[in-house]
Amino acid sequence: MNPENNKHMTSMRRPKFRLTRNLRKSILQGHPWVYREAIQPLDNGVRPDKACLAQVEDAKGEIAWAIFDPHGPLALRILSLESAPPSEKNEFFERRFARAWSLRKSWLTSSSRPTTAFRLFNGEGDGLPGLVCDLYDKTAVLQFDGRGPGEFWNREQISSFLQRELHVTSVVEKVRRPSKDEAPLLSIFGPLVTSPVPVLENGAKFEVDIVRGQKTGFFLDQRDNRLFVREIARGKTVLNLFSYTGGFSISAGLGGAAHVTSVDLSKDAVQECGNGFERNDLDPKTHAGLAADVFDFMKTGKETWDHVIVDPPSMSHSEDRKDLAVQKYTELFAQAIRRVRRDGEISLSSCSSHISFEDFHKITTESLSQARRKGTVLRVSGQGADHPYPNACPELRYLKFFHLTLD
Ligand code: SAH
Asked: pTM of this prediction?
Protein backbone atom coordinates (compact mmCIF):
# COMPACT_ATOMS: atom_id res chain seq x y z
CA MET A 1 0.00 0.00 0.00
CA ASN A 2 2.91 2.36 0.58
CA PRO A 3 4.87 2.66 -2.68
CA GLU A 4 7.21 -0.08 -1.40
CA ASN A 5 4.36 -2.41 -0.63
CA ASN A 6 2.59 -1.60 -3.86
CA LYS A 7 5.24 -3.64 -5.55
CA HIS A 8 3.86 -6.64 -3.72
CA MET A 9 0.31 -5.76 -4.63
CA THR A 10 1.00 -5.52 -8.33
CA SER A 11 3.68 -8.10 -8.90
CA MET A 12 2.62 -11.68 -9.36
CA ARG A 13 5.19 -12.96 -6.89
CA ARG A 14 3.99 -12.03 -3.46
CA PRO A 15 5.64 -13.41 -0.36
CA LYS A 16 4.10 -16.65 0.85
CA PHE A 17 4.19 -18.11 4.34
CA ARG A 18 3.52 -21.65 5.41
CA LEU A 19 1.83 -22.31 8.75
CA THR A 20 3.81 -24.68 10.92
CA ARG A 21 0.89 -25.14 13.34
CA ASN A 22 -2.63 -26.23 12.71
CA LEU A 23 -4.29 -22.82 12.59
CA ARG A 24 -6.45 -23.35 9.51
CA LYS A 25 -9.70 -23.69 11.45
CA SER A 26 -9.07 -20.72 13.69
CA ILE A 27 -8.19 -18.49 10.71
CA LEU A 28 -11.26 -19.64 8.80
CA GLN A 29 -13.36 -18.84 11.88
CA GLY A 30 -12.04 -15.29 11.77
CA HIS A 31 -9.13 -15.24 14.21
CA PRO A 32 -6.92 -12.45 12.85
CA TRP A 33 -3.44 -13.24 14.21
CA VAL A 34 -0.57 -15.64 13.56
CA TYR A 35 2.53 -15.37 15.75
CA ARG A 36 6.04 -15.53 14.38
CA GLU A 37 6.73 -19.01 15.84
CA ALA A 38 3.89 -20.45 13.78
CA ILE A 39 5.16 -19.62 10.30
CA GLN A 40 7.96 -20.39 7.94
CA PRO A 41 8.69 -18.37 4.78
CA LEU A 42 8.46 -19.99 1.38
CA ASP A 43 10.19 -18.54 -1.70
CA ASN A 44 13.64 -19.77 -0.63
CA GLY A 45 13.22 -18.28 2.79
CA VAL A 46 13.14 -14.66 1.61
CA ARG A 47 11.59 -12.46 4.25
CA PRO A 48 10.66 -8.92 3.20
CA ASP A 49 12.18 -6.32 5.54
CA LYS A 50 9.08 -4.10 5.40
CA ALA A 51 5.45 -4.91 6.12
CA CYS A 52 3.64 -6.05 3.00
CA LEU A 53 0.78 -8.12 1.65
CA ALA A 54 1.49 -11.85 1.86
CA GLN A 55 -0.28 -15.13 1.17
CA VAL A 56 -0.83 -17.70 3.90
CA GLU A 57 -1.00 -21.43 3.26
CA ASP A 58 -0.64 -24.77 4.96
CA ALA A 59 -0.05 -28.29 3.68
CA LYS A 60 -3.66 -28.44 2.41
CA GLY A 61 -3.30 -25.25 0.33
CA GLU A 62 -3.86 -21.51 0.34
CA ILE A 63 -5.93 -20.07 3.17
CA ALA A 64 -5.78 -16.29 3.37
CA TRP A 65 -4.15 -12.96 2.57
CA ALA A 66 -2.45 -11.16 5.39
CA ILE A 67 -0.27 -8.24 6.35
CA PHE A 68 3.20 -9.66 6.95
CA ASP A 69 5.00 -7.74 9.70
CA PRO A 70 8.76 -8.42 9.90
CA HIS A 71 9.12 -6.43 13.16
CA GLY A 72 6.58 -7.41 15.84
CA PRO A 73 5.52 -10.72 17.40
CA LEU A 74 2.36 -10.80 15.26
CA ALA A 75 3.95 -11.91 12.01
CA LEU A 76 0.68 -12.18 10.11
CA ARG A 77 -2.51 -10.18 10.49
CA ILE A 78 -5.23 -11.73 8.37
CA LEU A 79 -6.89 -9.41 5.87
CA SER A 80 -8.99 -11.62 3.66
CA LEU A 81 -10.09 -15.20 3.11
CA GLU A 82 -10.97 -14.56 -0.52
CA SER A 83 -8.85 -16.23 -3.16
CA ALA A 84 -8.18 -12.99 -5.09
CA PRO A 85 -5.66 -10.73 -3.38
CA PRO A 86 -6.88 -7.50 -1.79
CA SER A 87 -6.08 -4.85 -4.37
CA GLU A 88 -6.86 -1.35 -5.56
CA LYS A 89 -8.57 -2.93 -8.55
CA ASN A 90 -11.30 -4.56 -6.50
CA GLU A 91 -11.44 -1.54 -4.16
CA PHE A 92 -10.85 -3.90 -1.28
CA PHE A 93 -9.79 -1.30 1.27
CA GLU A 94 -12.34 1.30 0.17
CA ARG A 95 -15.08 -1.26 0.80
CA ARG A 96 -13.75 -2.01 4.27
CA PHE A 97 -13.60 1.72 5.10
CA ALA A 98 -17.13 2.24 3.82
CA ARG A 99 -18.45 -0.74 5.78
CA ALA A 100 -16.93 0.57 9.02
CA TRP A 101 -18.53 3.98 8.45
CA SER A 102 -21.94 2.53 7.61
CA LEU A 103 -21.87 0.41 10.82
CA ARG A 104 -21.47 3.59 12.89
CA LYS A 105 -23.53 6.01 10.84
CA SER A 106 -26.86 4.40 11.73
CA TRP A 107 -26.58 4.70 15.50
CA LEU A 108 -24.76 8.03 15.37
CA THR A 109 -27.49 9.66 13.36
CA SER A 110 -30.50 7.97 15.00
CA SER A 111 -29.82 9.11 18.57
CA SER A 112 -31.56 12.29 19.70
CA ARG A 113 -28.47 13.15 21.74
CA PRO A 114 -25.70 14.13 19.33
CA THR A 115 -22.29 12.42 19.39
CA THR A 116 -19.36 13.80 17.38
CA ALA A 117 -16.54 11.73 18.92
CA PHE A 118 -16.29 8.07 17.99
CA ARG A 119 -13.97 5.37 16.73
CA LEU A 120 -14.38 4.95 13.00
CA PHE A 121 -11.85 2.16 12.40
CA ASN A 122 -11.16 -0.33 15.17
CA GLY A 123 -8.38 -2.40 13.63
CA GLU A 124 -9.07 -6.14 13.45
CA GLY A 125 -12.73 -5.60 14.46
CA ASP A 126 -13.28 -3.75 11.19
CA GLY A 127 -11.11 -6.03 9.06
CA LEU A 128 -8.46 -3.30 9.07
CA PRO A 129 -5.69 -4.93 11.13
CA GLY A 130 -3.52 -2.60 13.15
CA LEU A 131 -5.35 0.55 12.02
CA VAL A 132 -7.24 2.79 14.43
CA CYS A 133 -9.00 5.99 13.41
CA ASP A 134 -10.82 8.14 15.94
CA LEU A 135 -13.00 11.04 14.89
CA TYR A 136 -13.20 14.19 16.98
CA ASP A 137 -15.70 16.31 15.13
CA LYS A 138 -13.88 17.25 11.90
CA THR A 139 -10.46 16.03 13.06
CA ALA A 140 -9.42 12.43 12.44
CA VAL A 141 -6.66 10.83 14.50
CA LEU A 142 -4.88 7.78 13.07
CA GLN A 143 -2.95 5.37 15.22
CA PHE A 144 -1.10 2.26 14.09
CA ASP A 145 -0.58 -0.79 16.27
CA GLY A 146 3.19 -1.05 15.87
CA ARG A 147 5.76 -0.50 13.16
CA GLY A 148 4.43 -3.07 10.68
CA PRO A 149 0.90 -1.63 10.38
CA GLY A 150 2.51 1.85 10.24
CA GLU A 151 4.45 0.73 7.16
CA PHE A 152 1.57 -1.09 5.55
CA TRP A 153 -1.33 1.34 5.67
CA ASN A 154 -1.54 4.02 3.05
CA ARG A 155 -2.16 7.28 4.88
CA GLU A 156 -3.12 9.14 1.69
CA GLN A 157 -5.78 6.59 0.77
CA ILE A 158 -7.28 6.70 4.27
CA SER A 159 -7.12 10.47 4.32
CA SER A 160 -8.88 10.87 0.97
CA PHE A 161 -11.69 8.56 2.20
CA LEU A 162 -12.05 10.65 5.35
CA GLN A 163 -12.20 13.88 3.39
CA ARG A 164 -14.69 12.55 0.88
CA GLU A 165 -17.04 10.62 3.16
CA LEU A 166 -16.71 12.31 6.56
CA HIS A 167 -15.73 15.80 5.42
CA VAL A 168 -12.85 15.99 7.85
CA THR A 169 -10.74 19.14 7.74
CA SER A 170 -7.67 17.68 9.44
CA VAL A 171 -6.09 14.22 9.58
CA VAL A 172 -3.28 13.64 12.06
CA GLU A 173 -1.28 10.61 13.14
CA LYS A 174 -0.65 10.14 16.82
CA VAL A 175 2.53 8.15 17.38
CA ARG A 176 1.93 5.50 20.05
CA ARG A 177 5.25 5.54 21.85
CA PRO A 178 7.28 8.38 20.35
CA SER A 179 11.03 8.27 20.93
CA LYS A 180 12.73 11.41 22.30
CA ASP A 181 13.49 12.93 18.90
CA GLU A 182 10.14 11.93 17.36
CA ALA A 183 7.15 14.30 17.17
CA PRO A 184 4.09 12.80 18.91
CA LEU A 185 1.72 14.18 16.30
CA LEU A 186 2.19 14.22 12.53
CA SER A 187 0.07 16.02 9.99
CA ILE A 188 -1.38 13.88 7.18
CA PHE A 189 -3.86 16.41 5.82
CA GLY A 190 -4.91 19.94 6.74
CA PRO A 191 -3.71 21.94 9.72
CA LEU A 192 -2.02 20.18 12.63
CA VAL A 193 -4.38 20.49 15.63
CA THR A 194 -2.72 22.29 18.51
CA SER A 195 -5.65 23.24 20.77
CA PRO A 196 -8.33 21.01 22.32
CA VAL A 197 -11.17 20.01 20.01
CA PRO A 198 -14.76 20.57 21.26
CA VAL A 199 -16.92 17.45 20.83
CA LEU A 200 -20.29 16.15 21.93
CA GLU A 201 -20.93 12.77 23.50
CA ASN A 202 -24.63 12.05 23.81
CA GLY A 203 -25.10 15.80 24.06
CA ALA A 204 -22.46 16.26 26.80
CA LYS A 205 -19.75 18.80 25.91
CA PHE A 206 -16.11 17.76 26.15
CA GLU A 207 -12.86 19.24 24.93
CA VAL A 208 -10.37 16.67 23.71
CA ASP A 209 -6.66 17.39 23.91
CA ILE A 210 -5.33 15.25 21.08
CA VAL A 211 -1.71 16.35 21.52
CA ARG A 212 -1.30 15.95 25.28
CA GLY A 213 -4.22 13.66 26.11
CA GLN A 214 -4.01 9.92 26.70
CA LYS A 215 -4.63 7.46 23.84
CA THR A 216 -5.93 9.54 20.94
CA GLY A 217 -7.28 12.08 23.46
CA PHE A 218 -10.39 10.52 24.99
CA PHE A 219 -11.59 7.12 26.26
CA LEU A 220 -14.27 6.65 23.63
CA ASP A 221 -14.83 3.01 24.61
CA GLN A 222 -16.72 3.96 27.81
CA ARG A 223 -19.42 6.01 26.02
CA ASP A 224 -22.34 3.64 26.70
CA ASN A 225 -21.30 3.17 30.32
CA ARG A 226 -21.09 6.92 30.85
CA LEU A 227 -24.62 7.24 29.50
CA PHE A 228 -25.73 4.55 31.95
CA VAL A 229 -24.10 6.45 34.83
CA ARG A 230 -25.95 9.56 33.70
CA GLU A 231 -29.27 7.73 33.68
CA ILE A 232 -28.94 6.52 37.27
CA ALA A 233 -27.23 9.56 38.83
CA ARG A 234 -30.13 11.67 40.07
CA GLY A 235 -29.71 12.89 43.63
CA LYS A 236 -26.64 10.73 44.34
CA THR A 237 -23.21 11.51 45.72
CA VAL A 238 -20.63 10.06 43.34
CA LEU A 239 -16.94 9.26 43.73
CA ASN A 240 -15.16 8.86 40.39
CA LEU A 241 -11.75 7.23 40.84
CA PHE A 242 -9.24 7.53 37.96
CA SER A 243 -11.48 10.23 36.51
CA TYR A 244 -9.19 11.47 33.70
CA THR A 245 -10.96 14.50 32.15
CA GLY A 246 -14.23 13.60 33.84
CA GLY A 247 -16.11 11.48 31.33
CA PHE A 248 -18.06 9.76 34.12
CA SER A 249 -18.10 12.83 36.41
CA ILE A 250 -19.72 15.14 33.88
CA SER A 251 -22.16 12.40 32.86
CA ALA A 252 -23.18 11.98 36.51
CA GLY A 253 -23.50 15.76 36.85
CA LEU A 254 -25.72 15.97 33.78
CA GLY A 255 -27.81 13.14 35.20
CA GLY A 256 -28.54 15.24 38.29
CA ALA A 257 -26.00 13.93 40.81
CA ALA A 258 -26.08 15.88 44.07
CA HIS A 259 -22.28 16.00 44.24
CA VAL A 260 -19.36 14.45 42.33
CA THR A 261 -15.78 13.95 43.56
CA SER A 262 -13.18 13.22 40.85
CA VAL A 263 -9.74 11.81 41.66
CA ASP A 264 -6.88 11.48 39.18
CA LEU A 265 -3.11 11.67 39.30
CA SER A 266 -3.02 14.15 36.42
CA LYS A 267 -3.49 17.79 37.48
CA ASP A 268 -4.37 18.81 33.93
CA ALA A 269 -7.04 16.13 33.68
CA VAL A 270 -8.60 17.17 37.00
CA GLN A 271 -8.51 20.82 35.93
CA GLU A 272 -10.23 19.90 32.65
CA CYS A 273 -12.85 17.96 34.60
CA GLY A 274 -13.73 21.14 36.55
CA ASN A 275 -13.83 23.14 33.31
CA GLY A 276 -16.18 20.51 31.90
CA PHE A 277 -18.66 21.12 34.73
CA GLU A 278 -18.84 24.80 33.79
CA ARG A 279 -18.94 24.09 30.06
CA ASN A 280 -21.98 21.90 30.62
CA ASP A 281 -23.71 24.55 32.77
CA LEU A 282 -23.39 22.46 35.90
CA ASP A 283 -23.03 24.13 39.28
CA PRO A 284 -19.28 24.13 40.08
CA LYS A 285 -20.17 23.77 43.76
CA THR A 286 -21.42 20.25 43.01
CA HIS A 287 -17.94 19.11 41.95
CA ALA A 288 -14.67 18.56 43.79
CA GLY A 289 -11.59 17.64 41.77
CA LEU A 290 -8.57 16.13 43.48
CA ALA A 291 -5.19 15.65 41.82
CA ALA A 292 -4.01 12.70 43.90
CA ASP A 293 -2.88 9.11 43.82
CA VAL A 294 -6.01 6.98 44.26
CA PHE A 295 -4.09 4.48 46.40
CA ASP A 296 -3.12 7.28 48.84
CA PHE A 297 -6.58 8.81 48.69
CA MET A 298 -8.13 5.50 49.73
CA LYS A 299 -5.93 5.35 52.81
CA THR A 300 -7.30 8.63 54.15
CA GLY A 301 -10.71 9.34 55.70
CA LYS A 302 -13.77 7.15 56.07
CA GLU A 303 -16.27 9.03 53.91
CA THR A 304 -18.75 6.95 51.94
CA TRP A 305 -20.61 7.69 48.71
CA ASP A 306 -23.87 6.56 47.08
CA HIS A 307 -22.04 5.51 43.93
CA VAL A 308 -18.33 4.80 43.49
CA ILE A 309 -16.83 4.40 39.99
CA VAL A 310 -13.44 2.69 39.57
CA ASP A 311 -11.89 2.80 36.08
CA PRO A 312 -8.14 2.26 36.59
CA PRO A 313 -5.52 2.16 33.85
CA SER A 314 -4.51 -1.29 32.63
CA MET A 315 -2.73 -3.16 35.40
CA SER A 316 -1.75 -6.14 33.32
CA HIS A 317 0.46 -5.71 30.31
CA SER A 318 1.39 -9.33 29.85
CA GLU A 319 -0.06 -12.77 30.46
CA ASP A 320 2.89 -13.65 32.77
CA ARG A 321 2.07 -10.88 35.23
CA LYS A 322 -1.63 -11.67 35.30
CA ASP A 323 -1.64 -13.06 38.86
CA LEU A 324 -0.15 -9.84 40.18
CA ALA A 325 -2.69 -7.79 38.24
CA VAL A 326 -5.58 -9.88 39.61
CA GLN A 327 -4.30 -9.24 43.13
CA LYS A 328 -3.96 -5.48 42.51
CA TYR A 329 -7.47 -5.18 41.04
CA THR A 330 -8.91 -7.19 43.92
CA GLU A 331 -7.30 -4.99 46.60
CA LEU A 332 -8.26 -1.78 44.85
CA PHE A 333 -11.86 -2.86 44.30
CA ALA A 334 -12.18 -4.08 47.90
CA GLN A 335 -11.05 -0.65 49.12
CA ALA A 336 -13.49 1.09 46.79
CA ILE A 337 -16.34 -1.18 47.92
CA ARG A 338 -15.68 -0.14 51.52
CA ARG A 339 -16.37 3.46 50.46
CA VAL A 340 -19.89 2.68 49.23
CA ARG A 341 -22.62 3.49 51.72
CA ARG A 342 -25.24 0.91 52.68
CA ASP A 343 -27.54 0.12 49.73
CA GLY A 344 -25.22 2.11 47.50
CA GLU A 345 -23.75 1.18 44.14
CA ILE A 346 -20.38 0.47 42.56
CA SER A 347 -19.15 0.45 38.97
CA LEU A 348 -15.99 -1.60 38.41
CA SER A 349 -14.08 -1.48 35.17
CA SER A 350 -10.91 -2.87 33.61
CA CYS A 351 -9.37 -2.32 30.18
CA SER A 352 -6.69 -5.04 30.51
CA SER A 353 -7.03 -7.46 27.63
CA HIS A 354 -5.35 -10.18 29.70
CA ILE A 355 -8.23 -10.12 32.18
CA SER A 356 -11.25 -11.93 30.73
CA PHE A 357 -14.88 -11.40 31.75
CA GLU A 358 -14.60 -14.64 33.71
CA ASP A 359 -11.46 -13.40 35.51
CA PHE A 360 -13.22 -10.13 36.18
CA HIS A 361 -16.17 -11.88 37.75
CA LYS A 362 -13.78 -13.75 40.04
CA ILE A 363 -12.02 -10.49 40.95
CA THR A 364 -15.39 -8.90 41.74
CA THR A 365 -16.41 -11.88 43.90
CA GLU A 366 -13.13 -11.85 45.80
CA SER A 367 -13.14 -8.09 46.37
CA LEU A 368 -16.73 -8.22 47.69
CA SER A 369 -15.69 -11.01 49.98
CA GLN A 370 -12.63 -9.10 51.27
CA ALA A 371 -14.84 -6.06 51.95
CA ARG A 372 -17.49 -8.32 53.54
CA ARG A 373 -20.27 -7.00 51.32
CA LYS A 374 -22.80 -8.73 49.10
CA GLY A 375 -23.46 -7.44 45.60
CA THR A 376 -26.29 -7.68 43.08
CA VAL A 377 -25.34 -7.20 39.45
CA LEU A 378 -27.38 -4.61 37.56
CA ARG A 379 -25.27 -4.37 34.44
CA VAL A 380 -22.45 -6.23 32.73
CA SER A 381 -21.11 -4.44 29.71
CA GLY A 382 -18.00 -3.37 27.89
CA GLN A 383 -16.87 -1.37 24.92
CA GLY A 384 -19.39 0.39 22.68
CA ALA A 385 -20.46 -0.60 19.18
CA ASP A 386 -17.69 1.53 17.67
CA HIS A 387 -15.16 -0.90 19.17
CA PRO A 388 -16.16 -4.15 17.43
CA TYR A 389 -14.06 -7.31 17.68
CA PRO A 390 -14.05 -10.59 15.72
CA ASN A 391 -16.15 -13.20 17.49
CA ALA A 392 -13.23 -15.62 17.11
CA CYS A 393 -10.95 -13.26 19.01
CA PRO A 394 -12.35 -12.58 22.49
CA GLU A 395 -8.95 -11.09 23.46
CA LEU A 396 -10.12 -7.98 21.65
CA ARG A 397 -13.18 -7.75 23.89
CA TYR A 398 -10.98 -5.98 26.39
CA LEU A 399 -13.26 -3.57 28.28
CA LYS A 400 -15.19 -4.87 31.28
CA PHE A 401 -17.77 -2.78 33.17
CA PHE A 402 -19.78 -4.32 36.01
CA HIS A 403 -22.33 -2.31 37.95
CA LEU A 404 -23.62 -3.65 41.26
CA THR A 405 -25.80 -2.56 44.12
CA LEU A 406 -24.38 -3.44 47.51
CA ASP A 407 -26.07 -4.49 50.72
N1 SAH B 1 -12.72 6.93 33.32
C2 SAH B 1 -11.95 7.78 32.43
C3 SAH B 1 -10.71 7.09 31.90
C4 SAH B 1 -9.71 6.66 32.96
S5 SAH B 1 -8.14 6.31 32.32
C6 SAH B 1 -12.84 8.28 31.32
O7 SAH B 1 -14.01 7.85 31.21
O8 SAH B 1 -12.40 9.12 30.53
C9 SAH B 1 -7.16 6.07 33.73
C10 SAH B 1 -6.74 7.34 34.44
O11 SAH B 1 -6.07 6.92 35.64
C12 SAH B 1 -5.77 8.28 33.75
O13 SAH B 1 -6.34 9.55 33.66
C14 SAH B 1 -4.52 8.34 34.68
O15 SAH B 1 -4.00 9.66 34.81
C16 SAH B 1 -5.09 7.90 35.98
N17 SAH B 1 -4.18 7.26 36.95
C18 SAH B 1 -3.26 6.31 36.73
N19 SAH B 1 -2.72 5.89 37.91
C20 SAH B 1 -3.30 6.60 38.88
C21 SAH B 1 -3.20 6.63 40.30
N22 SAH B 1 -2.36 5.81 40.94
N23 SAH B 1 -4.00 7.48 40.98
C24 SAH B 1 -4.84 8.29 40.33
N25 SAH B 1 -5.00 8.30 39.00
C26 SAH B 1 -4.24 7.48 38.27
From this structure: 0.95
